[in-house]
Design a protein that fits this description.
Low-confidence stretches of chain A: none
Helix content of chain A: over 70%
Radius of gyration of chain B: 24 Å
Distance between the termini of chain B: 28 Å
Number of strands of chain A: 2
Number of strands of chain B: 2
Structural class of chain B: mainly alpha
Largest interface: A-B, 31 and 32 residues
Number of helices of chain A: 23
Order of helices and strands of chain B: HHHHEEHHHHHHHHHHHHHHHHHHHHHH
Low-confidence stretches of chain B: 311-347
Order of helices and strands of chain A: HHEEHHHHHHHHHHHHHHHHHHHHH
Largest sheet of chain B: 2 strands, antiparallel
Strand order of the largest sheet of chain A: 1-2
Mean pLDDT of chain B: 85
Oligomer: heterodimer
Strand content of chain B: under 5%
Largest sheet of chain A: 2 strands, antiparallel
Strand content of chain A: under 5%
Shape of chain A: globular
Number of helices of chain B: 26
Strand order of the largest sheet of chain B: 1-2
Mean pLDDT of chain A: 86
Structural class of chain A: mainly alpha
């Protein structure tokens, strides 16, 4: 293995699974619960440190590079044959879109493992499932082979089902199976789309340069790569592929996915729809969001943190990585559909949050509302079309930023709700009040994190929302006004909740004696979250420097595609118009002749 | 051809065929040996299990499916016993699969102790006899052999279903099974006689040739209806073996009454053989093998014979008048033309394939509809089950539906892209191999648990994870694998089948299969939920199923492929491809 990234990235993905395997051994038996938790926590810390190590610019090969073009492209790529008879490769890499999400995943995993200390039931099983879940999550963000991506995507389902179903609240079984069924249905649609794309793809249509850029051919030296590419292009039978980068190139530069499908819609539109439904269930957007409030409310605190902090981001990631680049025509034709889904989610989520009596349910609905920004920001592109790609870049950057900001703030909010729930064992908003007096540090941290969720300037939530709203403004004032007014609703439900929980004279609900000040462990989980929320609020460049080049590059490519597409459409319509004119002229002539004859 | 010559040919043909028939012969000898050994004290002391297992291992050695993995065509497609059987890589693979299963099955029966000392001789005789029939099913090349093989495989199963003497449900199961089986066998035989009557032959490739002539000739009129009826009736027999809707009614009752071990046998071996047979028949009536095409083109004698045979029952075989008549019937009615024109084979072959388009699309649609209905019905009916064996019976029905889909896809692809068609069949082979481990594992666990808790109700599995975590983890993995969730092996089979459906552009079937996958989750999940999340019932005694025991090791061994196959299934896939590579030759 001459490629140094194989070992590093594989370790990053599979180290948690290895930890799970070790915990499964009889070494960690009954009575060793504390040790088991520490061991699992140790693994999440190691994985986090590994991902952070990638972030620090340096000379070592396993680090995120900022050199020239490298920063915007896929880095640390390796592509090994896995199942050659099905063209499946073990293909991974990292770029400016996935890298921040990977770090977010390892970070949130570490914090929520730390938040798992109150778990007392079947600790061994919990730790095993938790670590398996982490492997699945990291794998999704790294996989560049569609099959591999799908496997990781589904690997998360089983642990998640059991984590909610065994360690959850009173209605845990209902919530767990609802989550499972919804996601599985979405992934079946996704699988169908993947197979359609696979079967219709043909690598022979690409140039050697494109093949090399998509890492279909790993370039040891130029001559060898060129001959391999030529051999591939000269192949007799179609060369199908699961390579996501190659599929993107095929979708943008060839018409392989433009064949007409059912109802006369092209394959691109169908694939876009199927993938979009699969991803949007995970995001989740109205009307496919109903699993989320149940799952979030019933899940134990650390799992809620993972759900809100990482799992929802996979939907957004899927849309930005798969839907648009592979099926630009689908995104182009369904622009309004996507944007309206985003806006409806924002408004509906905000109103629903306003109506909740359950603290955790309110936070859950706030996730629906906040993730609506992500969908809207990504959808803006096609409204913008080719007029000015900068606005889409702004929208997409906003969406990405919003995902990360929401990952931090929502994980923090769920943790804060969990802290109070551990003490008083209820979450009824109307029975709280006066917590500031009893738990001043906790309340201070909470207020900070909730403000970050609210989108207060100077905190991380603000940047994403502003970027998205601004980018919409140019193209649809109505949508922009609606999305801007959601900010007011957000402020309303968060402030109202804060008022009911932390302010007020004194706590009158059950278990007032349990309101002890925040512990050291809880403090160490909450404060990094708040610190990051502040850091990204005042210095967004810390994140943008990773994301912007990649997003800009992708946007430019897609804008180029859109220009071409529009030119084509125009030419088509012009041709049609000319044809129509000619036909009319001919018809008129004919009539005149007939007229002359009859006379 | 003189009489003397005929006899000599027969002798040489038989001598040649026996070479390829060794696994079957080994099983026959094992059965005889097993029965005879019971007369002696040493034979009784050894027990039938030893003989059966040893016989199966020797037979597997002769079947040698591993030679498929070697490069080059080690297996040559050959017709055995004057065309009654066909020996090709498909036969080799399926014989290997059945024998491999037989070994695992014998070990399972020994571990659970389902046949007591008294019964074990009969039990293993029946099992081996049934497997023998299945091995004939997978290599059948003649309609009569199909019937004989199906019966040979079925009759012992009827007895096996009633093995637990004195249990009312077992007797009911056996009776239901045999009546149903006898009925469908009769219908199938009728169908065979209709098809053979119209086409003038029961030899599958010849039937295909005759069909292509008939279908590309002048309109068939009432003969077409008779043909379709015959095909439907044969389908009835196959559908019974597959437990496809609407001939599935025996399945849940038989599975509930019979012991879990027998269920494993019925749901894996019987189903595998039936699917292989379905492939043989479907391709048999949808495609004229290349070898037969060449024979037709080269040996005028064969064609002459065919022409004579064809002329007798059918009037349509008169020399064609119009210029549009394809080359295939010409080849038969005017055999001299073939021998003189060397360039004919290729166009003739294409025309023959084209001539069968009618029968192919008919069979493809029939199988596709049956698959969709079977799959959906099986999954929906499984929802309400409380008995684990009944639930698994419906799951088996649903899986038969999934596995019939690629056969339909293969038929659709046959004309345009033969290599894609064989690939489609290979997805079935892949699925079936994975399915072997899943279902054997599931029923093995049910059997082991029955020995511990004397119950097969799902409700009695509640809270098993507290006392027997190992087996619950294995069972859960198998159940989720049956749903088809990655990274478990069941997903690989589903993935491959879905790919075949996309390739054949059977989108409606793909959507049906996809939605079925999603809804099937619910009932499999329920079992896992009961075992893991529910509280232990007071009524049940303590259940301890240690993984560090022979039974535990067996369960772990069977579950291991389900868990580990995701890491590298390229070899298995290539094996499956190799198994199907000669189907169209």
């Amino acid at each position: 293995m001459e490629n140094p990234h194989v070992l590093f990235l594989s370790l990053l993905v599979f180290l948690p699974a290895l930890g799970a395997l070790l915990i499964a051994t009889p070494l960690f038996g009954k009575g060793n619960e504390e040790l088991t938790k520490r061991f699992a926590f140790g693994f999440t810390v190691i994985v986090f440190l590994m991902s952070i190590w990638m972030a620090i610019p340096g000379a070592s090969p396993n680090q995120f590079s900022f050199d020239g073009d490298a920063v915007s492209e896929m880095q640390m790529v390796f592509n090994l044959p896995w199942i050659p008879s099905f063209d499946i490769n073990y293909f991974m890499g990292v770029d400016g879109i996935s890298f921040p999400l990977i770090v977010l995943t390892t970070f949130i995993s570490m914090l929520s493992m730390a938040a798992s200390w109150p778990i007392k039931k079947y600790v061994k099983g919990y730790c095993i499932l938790f670590l398996l879940l982490e492997t699945g999550m990291i794998g999704v963000f790294m996989a560049l082979d569609f099959f591999l991506f799908y496997v990781f995507w589904e690997v998360m389902l089983l642990p998640m089902y059991f984590l909610i179903g065994i360690w959850g609240g009173p209605r845990r079984e209902y919530a767990a199976i609802k989550f499972f069924l919804y996601t599985l249905l979405g992934s079946v649609f996704m699988l169908i789309a993947i197979l359609i794309l696979y079967y219709n793809s043909d690598l022979r249509a690409l140039s050697p340069e494109q093949l090399q850029a998509a890492h279909v051919i790993s370039a040891v030296d130029d001559a060898a790569a060129a001959s391999a590419a030529n051999a591939l292009i000269a192949a007799e039978s179609p060369q199908h592929t699961f390579n996501i980068l190659a599929l993107q190139t095929l979708g943008q530069s060839t018409d392989q996915f433009s064949k007409p499908g059912l109802f006369g819609w092209s394959l691109q539109i169908w694939a876009f729809l199927l993938l979009f439904v699969g991803f949007v269930i995970k995001v989740p957007s109205v009307p496919l969001h109903t699993w989320l409030p149940d799952a979030h409310v019933e899940a134990p605190t650390p799992i809620s943190m993972i759900l809100a902090g990482v799992l929802l981001k996979m939907g957004g990631y899927g849309i930005i990585r798969m839907c648009y680049p592979i099926c630009p025509e689908g995104g182009y034709s369904l622009a309004w559909f996507v944007c309206i889904i985003g806006v409806v989610s924002m408004v509906y989520g905000a109103f629903a949050a306003l109506a909740q009596k359950d603290f955790k349910r309110m936070v859950a609905y706030s996730s629906v509302s906040h993730m609506g920004y992500v969908v809207l920001g990504l959808g803006v592109w096609s409204l913008a079309s080719s007029v000015d790609p900068d606005y889409w870049a702004m929208g997409a950057t906003g969406a990405m930023f919003q995902m990360l900001a929401h990952g931090i703030s929502s994980a923090g909010m769920f943790f804060m709700v969990g802290v109070i729930y551990d003490r008083v064992h209820h979450r009824d908003l109307d029975k709280f009040g006066g917590l500031f007096a009893k738990m001043p540090i906790y309340s201070g941290l909470s207020v900070g994190i909730f403000f970050a969720g609210l989108g207060l300037p100077g905190l991380c939530g603000f940047i994403g929302e502003v970027l998205v709203t601004l980018s919409v403004w140019k193209f649809s004032v109505v949508l922009a006004v609606i999305s801007a007014s959601v900010v007011v609703l957000t402020a309303a439900y968060i402030l109202w909740a804060l008022q009911r929980v932390y302010l007020g004279a004194e706590y009158k609900g059950p278990h007032p004696e349990a309101l002890t000040p925040i512990t050291q462990r809880e403090l160490w989980i909450a404060s990094p979250l708040l610190a990051l929320a502040i850091l990204f609020g005042v210095y967004p460049q810390a994140l943008l420097m990773y994301m912007t080049p990649t997003i800009t590059r992708q946007v430019d490519q897609l804008a180029g595609w859109a220009l071409e597409h529009e030119a084509q459409q125009q030419a088509l319509t012009q041709d049609q118009q000319q044809e129509d004119l000619q036909k009319q002229a001919a018809l008129a002539e004919q009539r005149e002749e007939e007229f002359a004859i009859t006379n | 051809m003189s009489y003397q010559q005929l006899i000599e040919n027969l002798f040489s043909d038989t001598a040649m065929s026996v070479k390829f028939f060794l696994p079957e012969l080994t099983l026959c000898c094992t059965i005889l040996l097993m029965l005879l050994a019971r007369l002696f004290r040493w034979g009784r002391a050894l027990g039938s299990f030893v003989f059966a297992t040893a016989g199966a291992i020797v037979a597997l050695y002769y079947a040698a499916p591993w030679m498929l993995l070697e490069s080059g065509d080690v297996v040559q497609r050959t017709e055995l016993f004057t065309g009654m059987l066909i020996y090709d890589s498909f036969t080799v693979f399926f014989r290997g699969l059945l024998l491999f299963f037989l070994i695992l099955f014998c070990v399972l029966s020994q571990l659970t102790g389902i046949p007591d000392k008294e019964d074990s001789g009969d039990y293993y005789t029946l099992v081996l006899g049934s497997v023998l029939g299945m091995m004939l099913m997978v290599s059948a090349n003649h309609l009569l052999i199909i019937f004989l093989a199906v019966e040979m495989a079925s009759v012992p199963s009827y007895v096996l279903a009633g093995l637990l003497k004195g249990r009312r449900k077992a007797s009911e199961a056996a009776l239901k099974y045999s009546i149903y089986g006898a009925g469908t066998a009769g219908v199938m035989l009728y169908g065979i006689s209709l098809v053979a009557g119209i086409t003038g032959s029961a030899h599958l490739p010849t039937v295909a040739v005759r069909l292509s002539e008939l279908l590309s000739g002048p309109p068939l009129g009432s003969a077409a209806i008779v043909l379709a009826l015959g095909a439907l009736m044969i389908a009835v027999g196959l559908a019974f073996k597959l437990a496809a809707v609407p001939f599935h009614l025996w399945c849940p009752d038989v599975f509930e009454g019979a012991s879990a071990e027998v269920n494993a046998f019925l749901s894996v071996a019987s189903k595998a053989a039936a699917l292989a047979l379905l492939v043989r028949v479907a391709i048999g009536v949808g495609y004229v093998p290349e070898a037969t095409q060449q024979q037709l083109a080269q040996a005028s004698a064969v064609a002459e014979e065919l022409g004579e045979r064809a002329a007798a029952p059918m009037e349509e075989a008169t020399p064609p008048a119009d210029a549009l008549e394809s080359a295939a019937p010409t080849a038969v009615t005017e055999p001299t033309a073939i021998t003189t024109d060397a360039s004919l084979p290729q166009p003739a072959a294409d025309d023959m394939t084209a001539g069968l388009a009618g029968s192919r699309s008919f069979v493809a649609l029939l199988i596709a509809i049956m698959a969709a209905v079977t799959c959906t019905f099986g999954n929906l009916a499984a929802f309400g089950q409380t008995n684990i064996k009944r639930l698994l019976a419906y799951s088996t029905i649903a899986h038969a539906g999934y596995m019939m889909m690629p056969v339909s896809a293969a038929l659709v692809l046959l004309a345009s892209d033969p290599s894609a068609a064989t690939k489609a069949v290979s997805t079935l082979v892949l699925y079936l191999t994975i399915y072997l481990f899943m279902n054997l594992g599931a029923f093995a666990i049910v059997a082991f648990l029955r020995n511990q808790m004397f119950s097969e109700e799902i409700a009695d599995y509640a809270g098993l994870i507290r006392t027997s975590p190992g087996v619950v983890v294995c069972f859960t993995a198998i159940l989720f694998s049956l749903v088809g969730i990655p990274p478990l092996a069941g997903f690989l089979g589903k993935f491959a089948i879905f790919e075949a459906l996309v390739e054949a552009n059977l989108m409606w079937l793909l959507v049906v299969a996809g939605i079925n996958t999603a809804i099937s989750l619910y009932y499999y999940l329920r079992v896992a939920k009961v075992m893991i999340m529910d509280e232990e019932p007071d009524t049940r005694g303590p259940v301890h199923f240690p993984m560090l025991s022979l039974s535990g090791a067996y369960v772990a061994l069977v579950t291991a492929p389900v868990l580990l196959l995701i890491f590298n299934w390229n070899g298995l896939n290539e094996w499956a491809r190799a198994a199907c590579s000669q189907l169209l030759q």
